[in-house]
């Protein structure tokens, strides 16, 4: 079976209800509003590990009762000069290349459009995107995202990357993908060999729970790492899934074991239909306090919040400084007080 054939996925409420032995009606109600797809690979993980993975994948009626969520929580549409480009920051832009994902995560920020026909990206839209990026000299870094870029066939993905590489001012190309987590068999030596031709190329994966770090995920990351691709991970802090220091610690150690550098731990966005996943910022800060100084710095992500309305990413760090003046007073990771002379010798 090809890694992306119809049999690779469950896409109907009936198929999911049957596989998990649950009532179909709630699934149907949610599916009217939001798309549904679970890879058979991830289904298997749900069956082995239960709730933390179940909640990420299986539609829940809470998605329909969110009264505080925002449809376009990051204000992406207002930073979109052409349909498949989001240009919010000075030197970088997002290129949205696909509306497909191997799994439609229930907490997704782009829940409003992933998996829906109106987000489909055709050649004309991509050509318009390349044109915009080519005409905008300040952009040196492009993040290829979606949906999931690795859901495209390898030839089409190569056409996109080659087109970006042909733009002289684009230095770094990044791919944001959840496929190493949700459909790792899609990552093949052939895919890695293609990607290897376009360095400097970086990949940001997305793992949220240690149970997602499987031998298959490790193999996928090994193919990519051995193609010289630096791998990062963007994790979302999710209530009832990974909102404890012990789980996040285990995830971080597991990631560096498979050669993936934890990059961001995100406070969950305020996307409509995801309120039941959100923690308070204090939860994230207290997790960071248990990580910084206690866990190797290599494994420490930046905890950040993406400001609603397009304000951009704001790093969130526990407070260590207790007094700022000629002497800086602070506590260390154990809570012990220290000071440092905060002046220069003239
Ligand atoms: S893979 Fe990423 S873009 Fe796709 S549904 Fe999951 S979080 Fe959203």
UniProtKB/TrEMBL annotation:
Q: Name one Pfam family in it.
A: LAM_C
Keywords, sorted A to Z: 4Fe-4S, Iron, Iron-sulfur, Isomerase, Metal-binding, Pyridoxal phosphate, S-adenosyl-L-methionine
Q: Which domain of life is it from?
A: Bacteria
Q: Which cofactor does it need?
A: pyridoxal 5'-phosphate; [4Fe-4S] cluster
- Binding residue positions for [4Fe-4S] cluster: 101, 105, 108
Positions carrying N6-(pyridoxal phosphate)lysine: 313
GO MF term set:
4 iron, 4 sulfur cluster binding; isomerase activity; metal ion binding
Q: Which family does it belong to?
A: Belongs to the radical SAM superfamily. KamA family.
NCBIfam families named among the record's database cross-references: KamA family radical SAM protein
| This protein's name | KamA family radical SAM protein
Provenance organism: Desulfobulbus oligotrophicus
What does the organism's lineage look like at the top?
Bacteria, Pseudomonadati, Thermodesulfobacteriota, Desulfobulbia, Desulfobulbales
